[in-house]
Protein 1
Amino acid sequence: MTLIASPPPGAKATRNHPKKESLFQRIRNGSAWITILTIVVIVVLWQIIPQTGLINRVLFPTFTDTVAAFVQLLGSSYWWGDLTKTMSAVGIAWVIGVAFGFAMGVALGTSPFVRTAITPYAIAVQALPKVVLAPLLIGWLGFGSESKIALAVIICFFPVWIDTMVGLSLPSANEFKLLQSLKASKRQVFLKLQLPTAIPLIMVGVKHALLLAFTGVIVAEILAASDGGLGTLAKEFASQLNMGMTYAVVFVVVIIAVTLVSIADVVERRVVFWSEESRARKR
Amino acid sequence: MTITTQTSPLVKAEGITKIFGTGDKEMVALSGLNLEVKEGEFLSLLGPSGCGKSTALNIMGGLLRATEGTITFGGEPMTEPRRQIGMMFQQAVMFPWRTTLENVLLPVEIFGESKKEFKPKAQELLSMVGISEFENSYPWQLSGGMQQRAALARVLLHDPKLLLLDEPFGALDEFTRETMNQELLRLQNYANSTAVLVTHNITEAVFMSDRIAVMSARPGRLVGILEVPFDRPRRPELQTTNDFIKLVAEARSMLELQ
C-alpha cells in the first residue's frame, strides 16, 4: 500500500476572482468614454446655465467661479486652521467611537446576559435621529470641541457596535463544534474563531463610522460656530451669500470624504484579504 | 489482519437516551441506545435522517451529554471532549484567514503546544493526503475535496485513538467522495485508529465498515448490527460482487426500505 498519494482526481486549485477593471484599463478598452462624457456634460452645463440667467448666478456660481473660490480658499490664512480643527475632531471622535462601539459589541456579542439587558435600549438609540442630541450636548459641554466630538462619537459608534455584535455570532455551528471538540476555552473560541470571523463586518462598521464621525463633526460645527472648522466656514460663507466660497468648502468636504473612503478601502482589502467581497475586488 | 481481537470495547454506550427541549417541544432524538465500538474497527451508524445518528456521534465525542444512560471511552466515563478523539464534520471547517498548513496546526495552538515541533508532522500528513504543494494556499483556493483532505490531515495530527466522522464527504460529488473514502480507509489503517462513521448511504456503509449499526427514526433507536466480513484493503471492484450486493440488500431490509 502506498502511503504517498499522487495528486487526486478532482483536486485542482480553483481561483476565480471576478475582475473589476481599473480606470486605466477602461480607458484602454474604450469604455471610459461614458464616464468622461458625463463629467464633461456636467461641467459644461454648470458653466453655461448660471450665465444664461435661467438661475441666479449669485446663488449658483459657475464652474469657473467655483474653481476661483476654491483657489482663494486654499490660499487663505484661516483655511489650514479650520481644516485641522475639523479633521482632528473627526480623528478623535472616530477613535473613541470605534473603541466604544467595539467594546459594546464584544460585551453584547459574548454575553447573553448583557445582550438581554441592553437590547431594548440599543433599539431605542438606533431609532433615534441622533442629531437631536446636539443642543443637549452643547448645553452640557459648551461650544468648544468637546460637544463636537461628543456628537460625532454618538453618531458614529453605533454601526461598529452592531457590526461587532453580529459579526461575533457569524461562525457556523460546525466551526463552534470543531473548537468544542478540541476543548477550546471561551477565550480561544473568541480569539481564534469569533473575532477573525467578525473582522470583515467590523471593518464595514469602522468605515461607516469614519464618514458618520465626519458628518457629526460638521453638523456640530454648523450648529455651534465658536470653535471654527469646515462646517463653520460653510455656514459663514453662506450667510454672507458668498456662494463660490461655500461651494469650495463643500468641494473640500467631498474630496476629504472620498479620500478617507478610498484609504479605508485599501486598508480593508489588506486586512480582510480572505473575505468574499475583497477577494472579488482584488485583480 | 485480525479484526476481531477480543479486548474490552473502546467505547461502550449503555441505554443512551437523548431528549431535546422540554414540555410540548420535547423531542426524543435517541432512545435506549446500546452500542460497543471495538478497538481498531470501522463502525458505521447507518440510518435515515432524524434517526439520531449524529446525536449519538456527538455524545461519543463528548460534545453532548446524554439525558439518560452511560458512555465510557477506554473504560472511563465520557463527560467532555478528549484529545484522543478526533472529529470530522460534513464541512471541512477550514478558517479562510489561515493557510492550509496553519489550519492543520490549529489543534496545536488550542492545546498550547509548540507549532514548530508539530510543523514537520503536519507537512508529512499533508503530503500523505496528497496536497503538500498547497500548504501555503488558503482554503478558498482549494476544491471541496482538497479541503476535506486538509481536514483529514488536521484530525490525524494528534494520532487520535478514535475518529468520529459525521458524513465527512457528504457535501462532495460522488466521484470525489469515493476517492476520499478510499483515502480514509488507507489513513485509518495507517494511523491504526478506530473509526465511527455516520452515513445515510448504504453502499458506503457496507464498503467502509467492519460492522454497521442500523438505526431507525422517531425515536432514534438501534435496529440491529450487521457484520461485514470482507477482507482489507478493500478495492472499489468489491462493490460489484454478489456478496456485496447481498449485504446491501440485507441492510436495506433492516432499514425497512423494501
Protein 2
Amino acid sequence: MKMLKKLLTLSLAAAMAGTCLASCGNTSEGGSSDNAGSSAGGENTIVIGGSGPLTGSAAQYGVGVKNAVELAVKDVNDSGMLGDTKLSVIFEDDEADAADKAVNAYNTLKDKGMDIMVGTVTTGSCLAVVDYTKQDSYFQLTPSASAQDVIRNDNCFQVCFTDPNQGRASADYIADNGVAKKIAVIYDSSDAYSSGIFNTFKEEASAKGLEIVTEQSFTKDSKTDFSAQISAAKNAGAELVFLPIYYQEASLILSQSASADYKPIFFGCDGLDGILSVENFDTSLAEGVMLLTPFAADAADEATQKFVTAYKEAYGGEIPNQFAADAYDCVQIIASLIKQEGITADMSHEDMCAKLTAAITGGFSYDGLTGTGMTWSADGAVSKNPKAVVIKDGSYSALQ
Amino acid sequence: MGFLDNLINGISLGSIYAVIALGYTLVYGIAKMLNFAHGDVIMVGGYLIFTCATTWGLNPYLSLVIAMAGCTVLGILIEKIAYKPLRQATSLSVLITAIGVSYFLQNIALLIFGANPVTFTSIVNLPKISLFDGQIIIKSETTAAIVVSVLIVVGLSLFVGKTKSGRAMLAVSEDKDAAQLMGVNVNRTISLTFAIGSGLAAVAGGLLCSAYPVLSNTTGAMPGIKAFVAAVFGGIGSIPGAMIGGILIGVIEILGRAYISPQLADAIVFAVLIIVLMVKPTGILGKKISEKV
C-alpha cells in the first residue's frame, strides 16, 4: 500500500514537472513567433533592443519610447542612409520594475538576438540591467534613465540629462528668471530619481539664494495621501512647490492642493511630462505647471514639427512626449554612429559595442529634437541646454 | 493652525478607514472570520462606480447605488463559493482562502481594467467649508466621509439591536449551533452579513477614490490592511470600536507623517497596533474572546 502511494506521488510529481516544462516551451515559442516579423528581418539587419514599461503606472513613458523607436527605425530604413544594412526593433515590457522584471526583459532581448540596446526607460530598471549589459558587452543608450549611477559603466550613455543636472538646472531657472523665492519641495525619498534631483536642487538653490522653506517627502508605500505635505508647504508660505517626481503622484498632489485651496506655482522635471495624458485627469488642475524638459511638441522648428506630424499620423493623433523625442534621438544617434563607423550586421555585438563607445566619445556631435550640439563625455553624460515649458490651455508650450 | 489642519486631514483619512473597518468588524463579529478580500471588494466598488459614472456617464449617486448592488452580489458569491464550504474548517484555512480571494480579485481587475491607473472623478458634490478666513479648508470629501461613517455606525447599531435579522446576527455571533437550534437560519444570516459588509465596501470605495483619485487594481490593498489594523485597534467585532479605531489610526498616521517622519508614518501605525495589543489584547472596545487566528 505504502509503495503504491509512493509510486502515485512520484508519477504525479513527474506529470506536474512535465506540464511545467511543456508550458514553458510553449510560451517561449509563442514569444519568438510574435516577434519573428521584426527580429528575423534578414542577414543585413542590426537589431535594436528596447526595454521599458508598457503597462503600469509609468506606461506612458514606455509606450512613447516604443512608438518613437519604431518610427525612427522606419525613417532610417526608408531614408536608405545605411545602404544595404537595415535596422529592426524588438521591445520588451519591464513594467518599470527595479529588479527581476527588468532583468527578464533584458534576457528576453538577448535571446531574441539584440545587437544594440536602447533603454531602459526608467532609472530603476536601468540600474538593474547596466551591469549585465557591461558584462555581456552591449552598447547601451538610454533615452530617459537619468540617474548618475546609470552611466557608471563605460558602455552606457544617456540622451537625457542626469538627475544632478536636472536639479541644478531647475534651481538655476527658478533663480535666474525670478520665478519665486520661497520654495517647498515634495519628493519621493524611496526613489533614486527623485532624491537624486532633490539633492542637487537643494545645493544649487542655497548657492543661488533661494530659500527652501520646507522639505517634505513620501515613500512608495504611502503615495496616495499628501495632505500632511501640502499643509506643511501651505503653512510655510511657499510660493513655489518643486516636484521632482513622476506624474502619477504629481496628479494626486495637484488635485489635493486644489481641494485644499492652495495654489502655488508647481515646478517639476521631466517626470511630470505625460501628466496631461493621464486617463480622465482634469487638465485644468495642471494649468500653469512649469516643467524642465528638453522637448516641447509645439516648438516651431522644422525637425520638431516633422517628428510631431509623423508621430501623430502613425499613432492615432497622440502628441509625442519628451520621452518619445529622446527615444527618436537615440535611434538616430545610433544610426549616425553606425554609418560613421561602417558597422555591419555581421559584426558581433561586442565589436559593435567597442566601436560605438569609441565613436560616441570621440568628438561625435549630434543635432536632434532634444537639443543641438549634443556631445558625450567618457563618463556617459550628455551635454546640451535645458528648456522649460509651461502647461497652458491643456498643452505644453515653450518658455523663453 | 498647522496642527488643526493636520488633525482635520487625519480625521478625514480616519473616517475612510472607519467605513472600511466596519466591513471587517461586522464580518468578524458574526462569521468569526477575517475577510482579507474586503480591501479588494472596495477596489471592485471603485471600478464599478468609475465605469458607471465616467465611462457610461450615469449620475454619480445612481452609480454608487449600482456599485453597492454589484458589490453586495459579489460579497454573497464570494461567501457561497469560497467560504461556505469551509464552515467547519479551522480558521487558518479560511484565512488563507480569504487571501486567495484577495489575489484573485486583484488579478481579475488587472485583466479587465489593465495595469494603467485611472483618475477617478469625485462623486462627492458638496461645498467646501472654509474656516478662519480660508486658513483651514475642510474638503467636501472630508465632510462626506465623516457624515457617512457616523450614519453607517448609527444605522448598523440600530439594525443589529432592533431588527429581527440583526438579532439573528447577534445570536449567530454568540453561538452558531445554539442559534440554529432556536430556528435561526445560520447560512442565510452569514450571507446577509457578507451582503451588508460588501455593500459598505462599495461606499468605502466611493469615498476612498473620491478623496485620493487614483484607481488601480491594488487600490484597496493598503487601506484594507490599515483598516484591519483600525478594526483590531478598536476591538474587532465592535461596531463603535471600528469607528474609533479608524479615526485614531488616521490621525496617528497623518500626525506621524507631519511631525515625526513621512518615512516612518506606516511603521508608527503598526507600532501602535503592537503596543495596544500588548496592553489590551482585545482592543479598545473589544470583548474577551477565546478564538485565535
Protein 3
Amino acid sequence: MARAVTTQHKTIATAAAWIVALLIFFPILYTIITSFKSEQEAIQGFALIPSGTMESYAEVQAQSGYFKFFLNSVILSVGSTLLAILIAVPAAWSMAFSPTKRTKDILMWMLSTKMMPAVAVLFPIYLIFRDSGLLDSRIGLTVMLMLINLPIVVWMLYTYFREIPGEILEAARMDGASLWNEIIYVLTPMAVPGIASTMLLNIILAWNEAFWTIRLTTTNAAPLTAFISSFSSPQGLFWAKLSAASTLAIAPILIMGWFSQKQLVRGLTFGAVK
Amino acid sequence: MATQQTRSLARFMMAPSVVLLFIWMIVPLVFTIYFSLLQYNPLNPIRDGFVWFANYKLFYSNPAFFAAILNTLTIVVSVLVITVVGGILLAMLLDQPIWGQGIVRILVISPFFVMPPVAALVWKNMIMHPQYGVFADIARFFGAEPIDWFGQHPLTAIILIVAWQWLPFATLILLTSLQSLDGEQKEAAEMDGAGFLSRFIYLTLPHMSRAITVVILIQTIFLLSVYAEILVTTNGGPGYASTNLPFLVYQKALLEFKIGQASAGGVIAVILANIVAFFAMRAVGKNLDK
C-alpha cells in the first residue's frame, strides 16, 4: 500500500517543491527581469514582464567599463586556481600515496589556517601589500586568493587521489612501465577528473571572494566584487542598471555552479558527505 | 615499505604547500598580536607607544565592542537555526518523487553562487527597499505600511540575506545525505508500522546527523566573518546596530586608523574562531579515521 507512490502524492509534492524553489530563486529571477526594463519601468512597481530593452546593459558597459572588471575576475579566479593546483597536486599526491603518521595532522593543520578570520590580519596584510607595492595589483591578489583556497584544494585533491587504487601502480610497475610512462598513461587519466572538479569549485570560490578582493584593490586589479560594491553608494540608485550589472556579474559563475553541484557537496564538506 | 628516498621525496613534494601556509598563518598573526599591544595611529602618531592590554580593556568599557560581539553571535546562531531547520525540511521535500527535480534543484542551489555584494545589493534595492522593493509592493497590496528594513530592523535584514545565501548549501548537503539513506531500511520501518514522525526521529535524523554537523561547522566558519553583506547594506548602522566583529575591525583599522584597537578586535576574532575550529577539527578528524 504505502510504498507505491500515488499520483496524487507526487502532484502535491511537485507543487510544493516548485513553489518553494521559485520563491528561493525569485530574487535572482527578478533581477534578471529588471535588467531588461528601462529605468522608468523598473521603479513603477511590481511587474514580471519587461519591455525587453537592452539599454541598461549598454550603459553599464559604457559608463563603468564592465568588461575590465570581468576580465580581472577571470584572471584572478583562474590564475589563483591554477597556481593553487600546481602547488597542491604534489602535496596531495604524496599524502595520498605515501602517508606517514603525521599526514593526518598536517591536513588538519592546513584546514585550521582556513579558520583564521581574514579580518584579523587585515592590517598587517594591508601594510605588507602597500610596502611591497602589491596593492591593487593582479599578482598580489592572485597570490592572496591562492593562499586562501590552498587548504581546500589540497584537501579536495587528497580525497580524490585517495580513491585511486595503489595496486594499479604496482601492476603497471610489474609490467615494466617506467616512472614517466606510469605518470602519463596510468596516473594522469585517473587523476584528471578529480583535478577538474577541484578547479571548478575553486574558481567559483575565488570568483565570489568578497573581502580581500574589495579591500586590496582600487581600480587596476578590481574584479566584479569590487565593481558591484561601488553600486552601493546612494547615487547609484538605478534599478535597471544595477540589475544588468548584477546579472552580468553572477551569470558565468551561476552556470558553472549548476554543473558542479556534486563536487560542491564533496569539496566543501572535505569528503565527509558524498 | 617506504624507503628513506621516497620519504624525502614525499617531504619535498609537500614542502611548498606547507611552507606557504605556515608563512601565511604565522607572519600576519604575529603582527596582529604585536599591534594589539600598541597605541598606534598612523594619522596621529604623537601618543603612539606600548600600552600592554589597554586595547583589550576597551572591550569592557566601549559599548561598540560588546555590541559587535553580540551581533556576531546573533548572526551566526540565527542563520544556523534558519538554514538547518529550513534545510532539513527542504531536503525532505526534494527527496520526494517529483516532476522536474533537476530543475528544482538548480533553482534552489542558485543563491549559493551569487557573490555576497550582489546578493546584498539585490535584496537591499529590489526586495527590501521601503519604496520600490517587492516587500513594499506586497505590503501596499494588503494595505499595510511598508517596513523600513535597514532603518528599523537592520540586523534582521542582514540575517535574512545571509540565510538566503546559505540555505541552498545546507539543503544540498542534507539532500545528498538523505539520498544515501537505505530505501530498504525505510521500508522495513514502515512495515513495522513506524509512523512518519517516529521514522523521522529514529531513522532519518540519526542518518543525517553527520551531514548536519558538517553543515553547522562549515557555515559557522563563514558566518563568523560576514562582511560584504554589511558593507553594502547598512554600513554597520544605524549606530552599531548591525556592526559585527569583522566589520568593527575594518572600521577601526581602515576608517579610523586605530590600529591597536582594531588588532585587539582581530585577536578576539581569532580566539572566537579557534573555539569553533577546535570542535570542527574533531568532527572532521573523526571522519578521516573511518
